[in-house]
Amino acid sequence: MLSYVLRRIALMIPTLFGIMLITFAIVQFAPGGPVERVLAQLQGQGDGALSRVTGGAGDLGGGGANRAGGETNAKYRGAQGLSPQFIAKLEQQFGFDKPAPERFAKMLWDYARFDFGRSYFRDVTVLQLIRERLPVSVSLGLWMTLLSYAISIPLGIRKAVKDGSRFDLWTSFVVIIGYAIPGFLFGLMLIILFSGGSFFQIFPLRGLTSEGWESFSLAQKIADYAWHMVLPLTALVIGAFATSTLLTKNSFLDEIRKQYVMTARMKGLSERRVLYGHVFRNAMLIVVAGFPGAFISAFFTGSLLIETIFSLDGLGLLSFQSIVGRDYPVVFATLYIFSLMGLAVNLLSDMIYVWIDPRIDFSARAT
């Protein structure tokens, strides 16, 4: 097992390299970068978010960005009337004055030391941005995963025991309908119904805490946090448990039909003892071992639209805003962290398989 773990860890390096290389290459050909964004804003009315960027590149009224008698820089759209010196300073400030291979090599070296630099358009480090958004994503991902498993496992077991019954058919219909409804659409319905839309105003519309939360007692903090989490978690969980429910049901059905279950029943063991004493461990192998992967999936990708609808500043929304705003340090840093954690979780899932069922031996695998 140790050799397998070391081999998997060694394979993470070229995998991460490939992910970052492909993404970096795509970004080089994508239209509109941070320089173009600054230039577009300068040619228009500008905004406060760019003041920190342009402040280091020169004063628009001075020599760095003076109008140069109709001079244009054909390299960038929207650069008409801006001096080439100003454009060069912008490129230097963003690091685009160096060739792409050199920039990529420097990025890899910095990321290997977990040095992710600073955001282009926010006056903070990338790690600080991620740290500020982390509690929201952890809350959504963890509670969604726990609630979906708490619903799907008992429901899946019950469906397996009642396979083909009216209960099985009706619950399958409900599960499929819930899975078919997009989470963001269900979130909008919840807002309309329970958050001051057209009917009731029971739950808050945005955020995870109320104003003055720091001054609340511990019980008040817990209650306020739970009050804010009801609607976004409901919107996330409504379709999240469908796959794990059907997976649990099918796993139990496969085990129930095996010979050792028939033998246990012939020995006179109660149905509960057979189900939970013999079937449960084998049937839940694939479900339990997939828990880390389900959490990571919910943590990083499952809540983007929910975060947007309920105004929750999580990592999903941060990544989306950074891509749209061409804030490349944040884009690449979140991609690197997400990829690294995804690879680590895949390895953890394999180790959980072995822990649950020692008969599994990954060390015998060639790769």
Automatic annotation (TrEMBL):
The record's listing under PROSITE patterns reads: ABC_TM1
* Name the record gives this protein: Microcin C ABC transporter permease YejB
In terms of CDD domains, this protein maps to: TM_PBP2
Q: Kindly state which keywords UniProt assigns to this record, in alphabetical order.
A: Cell membrane, Membrane, Transmembrane, Transmembrane helix, Transport
Question: So which residues are the signal peptide here?
Answer: none
Assign the protein's first listed, main location to one coarse class: membrane
Where do transmembrane segments lie in this chain? 9-30, 136-157, 169-194, 225-248, 283-310, 330-356
Q: Which family does it belong to?
A: Belongs to the binding-protein-dependent transport system permease family.
Species whose genome carries this gene: Methylobacterium soli
